[in-house]
Design a protein that fits this description.
The protein is about 30% helix and about 30% strand. The protein has eight helices and 15 strands. It has two domains: about 110 residues, D-amino Acid Aminotransferase, Chain A, domain 1; about 160 residues, D-amino Acid Aminotransferase, Chain A, domain 2 (Alpha-Beta Barrel). The structure holds 4'-deoxy-4'-aminopyridoxal-5'-phosphate. The site of 4'-deoxy-4'-aminopyridoxal-5'-phosphate has 14 residues, from helix 6 and strand 13.
């Protein structure tokens, strides 16, 4: 069951007018919320990021946080999967085609839920391949916009190279992945770029930083150079669906040094475990909190 503008229906019956500005201009924003055994993970944080994306593109939030909260919990109940990811998007609405914002238009709200499949065991054990690509996206990557053409092209560059993710570089610095945030480990220190207009403020990124701090793991949040990416002991990508996943080869070369070169490293293994434990803690909280 999906949700469209106030109604529940099977996805096959869901229709959006062709003049929806999401279709014409990619004029909208979205969120992806993982839900474990019916429990939305970090829902408040996802809804706060939704609000900042909406503010960034000047769409009035059609619902209160409480209403969104209800809808997310409702869609999870209406769908049978144990673990799901809820996708929601808000576009500016339907109007005759004109770049300028239409007056008095109602945003289009769409929500669906799909099975949440985290990376397979094989990827966990061996890590994944990534390639570096020049980050040619716009300068508001902090907005979770449905205009994802640049991200799609960047991701496809990775796929065409037989890899799973692109590690993006802008002006000699690491930004993020095409659909993930990136962490570097060097000499036991976890390093990741600070939040800025160049990266999406990942919910998983925040969780990883919180866990590193809580467990007194050395952490630096600062610009990361291309040289540091290439010389890393470990490289990870993080996202709500991929969680914490090691990148074991970059541009065809093994990541890391010595014996652990080309394999997921020990800091990644620790963080992955902390993340799993943290997820379980959240799932013990009653569903209505
Ligand atoms: N950056 C980009 C460009 C992304 O698309 C994503 C995943 N949606 C992320 C980072 C990770 O964000 P999150 O941890 O909230 O899934």
């Amino acid at each position: 069951m999906i949700y469209l503008n106030g109604a529940w229906m099977p996805i096959e019956q869901a229709m959006v007018p062709v003049l929806d500005r999401g279709f014409i201009f990619g004029d909208g924003v979205y969120e992806v919320i993982p839900c474990y055994s019916g429990h939305p993970f970090r829902l408040r944080e996802h809804l706060a990021r939704l609000q900042s994306s909406l503010d960034g593109v000047r769409i009035t939030n059609p619902y209160s946080v409480e209403r969104w909260d209800e809808l997310v919990r409702e869609i999870v109940v209406k769908n049978p999967m144990v673990d799901q990811y809820v996708y929601l998007q808000v576009t500016r609405g339907v109007a005759p085609r004109d770049h300028a914002f239409p007056k008095d238009v109602k945003p289009t709200v769409f929500m669906m839920s799909n099975p949440l499949t985290t990376p397979p065991q094989e990827q966990r054990e061996h890590g994944v391949a990534a390639v570096t690509v020049a980050d040619n996206r716009w300068l508001r990557c902090d907005i979770k916009s449905v205009s994802l053409l640049a991200n799609c092209l960047l991701r496809q560059t990775a796929i065409d190279a037989g890899a799973v993710e692109s590690v993006l570089l802008r002006d000699g610095l690491l930004t993020e992945g095409s659909a993930s945030n990136i962490f570097v480990v060097k000499n036991g220190v976890i390093i990741t770029p600070p939040k800025s207009n160049f990266i999406l403020p990942g919910i998983t990124y925040d969780v990883v930083i919180e866990l590193a701090r809580a467990h007194r793991m050395p952490l630096e949040i600062r610009p990361v150079s291309e040289a540091e990416v290439r010389d890393a002991d470990e490289l990870w990508l993080t996202s709500s669906t991929k969680e914490v996943l090691s990148i074991s080869s970059l541009d065809g070369k093994p990541v890391g040094h010595g014996e652990s070169a080309g394999k997921p490293g020990p800091v990644a293994a620790r963080m992955y475990q902390l993340y799993q434990d943290f997820k379980r803690t959240v799932m013990r909280v009653p569903a209505n909190v």
